[in-house]
Amino acid sequence: MTETQDTDAATPAASPSRRTLIGWGGAGLALGAVAAGGAVAATRAGDDADPTAAVGGAVAFHGAHQAGIATPVQDRLHFAAFDVKTDDRAEFVRMLKDWTAAARRMTAGHAVGEGAYGGLAEAPPDDTGEALGLSPSRLTLTIGFGPSLFERFGLAGKRPEALVDLPTFAGDNLDRTRTGGDLCIQACADDPQVAVHAIRNLARIGFGKVAIRWSQLGFGKTSSTTPDAQTPRNLMGFKDGTRNIAGTEPDRLKKFVWVGDGDGGEDESWMTGGSYLVARRIRMNIETWDRTSLQEQEDVFGRDKGEGAPVGRAKEHDKPFLKAMKPDAHVRLAHPDSNNGITILRRGYSFTDGTDGLGRLDAGLFFLAYQRDVRKGFIPLQRQLSSKDALNEYIQHVGSAVFAVPPGVRDKDDWWGRTLFSEEA
Q: Cβ(402)–Cβ(286) under 8 Å?
């Protein structure tokens, strides 16, 4: 926590299926059908988000940067980290191409491959079918590569220097079953079924080559990339993400989020236009917080609970007077002015995953932060917060992962990870 529709066009019955009995491998064959399956307006202005994107519409899949970073934050999340199970580099690259083809179709509101019905009766359908009849719901799919992936496929020399293993921070209580991963997919949508459908189908396509290591469902976005919209609230009831980087601020995105030309060595040029993602599962001690006085709650954050105004100010977006806050107030410690200008783009979600067996909610914040360099972004910021923040009495970091998020898929012939794998593909 930091301050700062239509489905796929049916395949004609007379056309023979190209699927094999062992699964879907014909992703590339169906790409041209996306445009023919019905018009769905795509919303992404150039490299940056179009904040006027309508709920239910489609977000453009192609672009210099991956969608799902600076694009307007949707209401729901399904995040999955995967372990790689194959040692065959060509097989893994083929999967990335198949995943790209499937992602291109699903983000446009179409079914995967030949769809959920109408193909060979003797073979499993190409699509699982639960999103049939649903709109694209602004679905975005964003892929990232974890540090451990670079121990495979001869990629050691291409691991970016900025893709560091995160250190252990004060107060961490990480669950190994919710930590790490060779790669990740972030699925964001306004309909939870659309997001879950996307992860389910990518996992199905990757069966035998990758397996889900852990996943997280999220609701109620806790940050926004559209500052004209109302700032969302976290499960503690406070506005979260005030002064987050907006998708309409290209200068700040360039400075703090996108990897630039010349960042790292020659072997790191494949990351130009990408970003680095830190994912943290933060458990909130909800019951303790709910018994805390309003004054203490406001002191902990350094903002009032109603308007979200900084201490001593009247409006949420008034410039904070940091010295008026308690020394351990969250806003004071997390503010760029307290951290040599450190700024990250936040894209978190609330979660509630039942109870812990002791009658307490297993709830909190699934924190997602994008930055140009983890060493200059999340790590120094979290060192400060983990050692001093009054909020630590009420939260605990229980899951963690870091990923290199490559640049966007530029056109129909491009695919996820091409810049990393193409020299040897």
A: no
Mean pLDDT for 69-75 is 96
Provide the pLDDT for residue 162.
97
Beta strands in 50-107 (DSSP E): 76-84
Residues found in the chain: 425
- What is the spatial distance between Cα 219 and Cα 190, in angstroms, rounded to a whole number? 9
Q: Answer whether 240's CB lies under 8 Å from 232's CB.
A: yes
Query: What are the two backbone dihedrals, phi and then psi, of residue 176, each rounded to the nearest 5 degrees?
Result: -60, -25
Please tell me the distance from the alpha carbon of residue 158 to that of residue 145, in angstroms, as a whole number.
12
Structure tokens at 398: 């229980």
- 231 sits in the region (left: phi over 0; alpha: psi -120 to 50; else beta) called beta
Q: Rounded distance, CA 82 to CA 214, Å?
A: 7
Residue 179 corresponds to which amino acid?
T
Q: How far is CA 393 from the centre of its chain?
A: 27
* DSSP one-letter string for 326-341: -TT-HHHHHSGGGTTT
**pLDDT at position 184 over 50:** yes
Dump pLDDT digits (tens) for 367-414: 999 999 999 999 999 999 999 999 999 999 999 999 999 999 999 999
CA atoms within 13 A on the CB side of 265: 7
Name every residue whose Cβ is closer than 8 Å to that of residue 135 and which is 6 or more positions away in sequence.
5, 6, 56, 57, 109, 191, 194
- List the single range of 19-28, 168-177, 410-419 with lowest mean pLDDT: 19-28
pLDDT score of 29 more than 70: no
- Return the minimum-mean-pLDDT range out of 184-188, 353-357, 402-406, 414-418: 353-357
Contacts for 26 with CB less than 8 Å, ≥ 6 apart: 18, 19, 113, 114
Q: Which of 417, 423, 407, 89 has the alpha carbon at shortest distance from 258?
A: 407
Distance of alpha carbon 196 from alpha carbon 255, whole angstroms:
33
| Sign (positive or negative) of CA dihedral 162, 336, 181, 167 | positive
Q: Give me the residues paired with residue 346 across strands.
A: 369
Q: DSSP class of residue 30?
A: G
Q: Which of 193, 205, 169, 175 is nearest to 77 (CA)?
A: 193
